Amino acid sequence: MEKAMKIGRNAGTGRFTTVKQAQAKPKTHVVETVKPAPKSGRK
Fold first, then answer.
1. Burial class (CB within 10 angstroms; exposed 0-12, middle 13-18, buried 19+) of 9
2. How far apart are CA 19 and CA 26, in angstroms?
3. Residues 6+ positions from 12 with CB-CB distance below 8 Å
4. pLDDT digits (tens, 9 = 90+) for 1-43
5. Under 8 Å between Cβ of 13 and 40
6. Contacts of residue 41, Cβ cutoff 8 Å, sequence gap at least 6
7. Model's pTM, two decimal places?
8. Rounded distance, CA 16 to CA 2, Å?
C-alpha cells in the first residue's frame, strides 16, 4: 500500500507547485495531502 503524499497548489489558478513554495506563500497557496487511488482490476 502506498502512502499519501503532499503537493502544493496555487489557490487562485489551481496549478500545482512545490510544497516549499506553497509553505512560503500561505496567502496564495495551499498544501494538500493526496491519497493514492484505490486499485481496481482483476487479480
1. middle
2. 11
3. 28
4. 678 899 999 999 999 999 999 999 999 999 999 998 887 776 6
5. no
6. none
7. 0.71
8. 21
